[in-house]
Amino acid sequence: MAPYESDEATAAAQDEDLHTGRRKAARYVVPVAVVGVAAATIGLVPALADSGDPDLPKITAQQLIDKIAKSDVQQLSGTVKITTDLGLPNLGGLESSLVSGAAQGGGDGSSADPESKLTELVSGTHTLRMATDGPDRQKLSLLESGAEYSLIHDGKDVWGYDSKSNEVYHGTAADSGKEHTAEPQATPKGFADEVLKSVDDTTSVTVDGTAQVAGRDAYKLLIKPKQSGTTVGAISIAVDAKTGMPLKFTLTPKSGGSAVLDAGFTQVSFARPAASTFDFTPPKGAKVTEDKAESKAPRQAPESGKGFAEGLKGSDVLGKGWTSIATFDTGAEGGMPSGSRGGDLDGFLGSLGDQVSGKFGKGTVFSTRLVNALITDDGKVYAGAVTKDTLVKAANEAK
User: Fold this and answer.
1) Which site from 4, 62, 64, 134 is most exposed, i.e. has the minimal number of CB atoms within 10 Å?
2) Comparing C-alpha atoms, which of 374, 371, 367 is closest to residue 396?
3) Who has greater pLDDT, 342 or 302?
4) pLDDT confidence band for 252 (50 / 70 / 90)
């Protein structure tokens, strides 16, 4: 059971359960795929309020957890600002193109496909405009300089529109899964839902006062790992005092400095959005790509960067809690070779990592401020929100 602590009381919470790249393609995208891992592991880090500390009734951490769980907001509209700083080197746009290419692997190749477009959220600061009217109507817009990308779910139809390229993606949300709906996951609620699944006896959860976010009174829930060896410092979730919906989510690394992830509403309304919000007709002259596979079967993860990230979901897990490490075999002998063995690209990517050795043999560790990944020369991968030393130790013990 996890310890839930507040200024006045400590309560016990129920435990809850906490992507495989293949061949040479996986080796090329490892440094960037780590970003994909981070997007998954991010759900596995303290939030600053707008201003003011409202005077709210006392609440225990357990009661606040329950309030989040019972929250059932069906209608809302608002603006979310999201900043991600994984500490990746500036590759002059190479990282973005690699991520997009990885996400499009096996896909339709449309710039309006949400699987590729929304990967832009893995770095920098972005503004999202969102609206929800029940489970069958959502809209998420990514506002860019002079352009906008919108993902609209209206009943069975899912539309993606990239105004910059004037391309349209069309799929359906029926039967084959929710991955093509516009249900917003890159929001405070989406991140909070994931992190709360990770709370167990390796975690300390406390109420850390109150705040005001987007003009709303909120409680602050502070989550800290008890374990050493993790790169996660703390997670703070600002929870709307009235509805129980998370309004702000901030993850800071143990190494300190700016947040790795900061996502929060700058404006929010719980009134029902106008029905016209979810209307969409492809603009004249737009290129429309139909996702025909949608009505036949769920999409399969491509054998590339996305496969790397998706593989983590079904990989073997070593350790427990915040020091859990996903491990799998890429089947790529030679790991991440040097330039002399693998060409200029391999050499460049290899230079981004740290060479390590141990009982497991030799390998390269690729690091971000949150997620580290070790790929050994015999093709094994170890990844998690853990330190380099923790990865090496796990690889040695697995050997």
Assistant:
1) 134
2) 374
3) 342
4) very high
What type of residue sits at position 278? F
Torsion of CA 350, 352, 353, 355, to 10 degrees: 60
pLDDT at residue 146 is higher than 50: yes
Is the pLDDT at 65 greater than 60? The verdict is yes
What are the CA-CA distances from residue 147 to residues 93, 143, 396 (Å)? Answer: 18, 7, 49
CB 305 within 8 A of CB 32: yes
Q: What are phi and psi of 224, to 5 degrees?
A: -135, 135
- Residue 117, pLDDT score: 75
| pLDDT single digits (tens) 72-122 | 999 999 999 999 998 875 544 444 444 444 444 444 567 888 877 777 788
Phi, psi of 188 (to 5 degrees): -55, -40
Tokens 């109150």 sit at which residue?
Answer: 210
In this structure, are strands 287-290 and 167-172 parallel, antiparallel, or unpaired?
parallel
